[in-house]
Amino acid sequence: MTSPQITGKVVLITGATSGIGEATARHLAAGGHSIVLGARRTDRLTAIARDIQQAGGQAMPRELDVTDLDSVKATVAAARARHGRIDVLVNNAGIMPLSFMAELRVDDWNRMIDVNLRGVLNGIAAVLPVMSEQKSGHIINVASVSGHRVDPTAAVYSATKFAVRALSEGLRQESRDLRVTVVSPGLTRTELFDGIANPQVEAGARAMLDQASIPPCAIAEAIGFAIGQPDGVDVNELVVRPTAQG
């Protein structure tokens, strides 16, 4: 099989249909990278990929469920079949159904573990053999400032993001050919807040969002900065938050 001529790097992005994932896909495509967009909402995926292509970029949409390892492996295989390699994985998919522990929203706890942590692990498991064979690659895990601090209603969410930072550091220390970056966004205007079931908690979160937040493109640009460094330079961690955020 002959791989097509590609400008820039081949970048697989999970959770690519909105927020940080969508902004990153558009930003990197505009910079000449070839994007593989993965998410569950196929209609939205197709629309974003079409926009990128009409603007002169390269984008391949793939239905993807990060909680299903077989689904992630299939997306990686499709990306590799088309491009011959995978240079960057952006583990971005995440959910944030905030609640007080006493509410005992166990199903929400389990969903956060499945998407925010197991989804990251599934991404790593799917691309690591490819990147090991290439002897190069870059895994970017989107964590959160909640991976640096814990606030009321965010205990389980913070736990998943602390875990993402821990496994990223472990992977970094085990790797010599692989770059590993953690990007921790502060208050960012995304759909994450749509999953909060408690009306009081949601109102409080949206009030903070209205007072101090940044657009998803700010995080996309940080991710682009990490990707754009020379191969021997590994930007290990970036915390990007609004200036006004406490």
Q: What do these coordinates show?
A:
- With 246 residues, this protein is α/β, with parallel strands linked by helices.
- The chain has a single domain (10-240), classed as NAD(P)-binding Rossmann-like Domain (Rossmann fold, 3-Layer(aba) Sandwich).
- The chain has helices spanning 19-30, 42-54, 69-83, 106-134, 155-174, 199-211, 216-227; strands spanning 10-14, 34-39, 58-63, 88-91, 137-142, 178-185, 237-240.
- It has a seven-stranded parallel β-sheet with strand order 3-2-1-4-5-6-7, sandwiched between helices.
- Helix 5 links the parallel strand 5 (137-142) and strand 6.
- Helix 1 (19-30) crosses helix 7 (216-227), helix 3 runs parallel beside helix 4 (106-134) and helix 4 packs parallel to helix 5 (155-174).
- The chain is globular.
- Residues 1-7 have low confidence and may be disordered.
Short synopsis of the structure:
By secondary structure, the protein is of the alpha/beta class. The protein has helices at residues 19-30, 42-54, 69-83, 106-134, 155-174, 199-211, 216-227, and strands at 10-14, 34-39, 58-63, 88-91, 137-142, 178-185, 237-240.
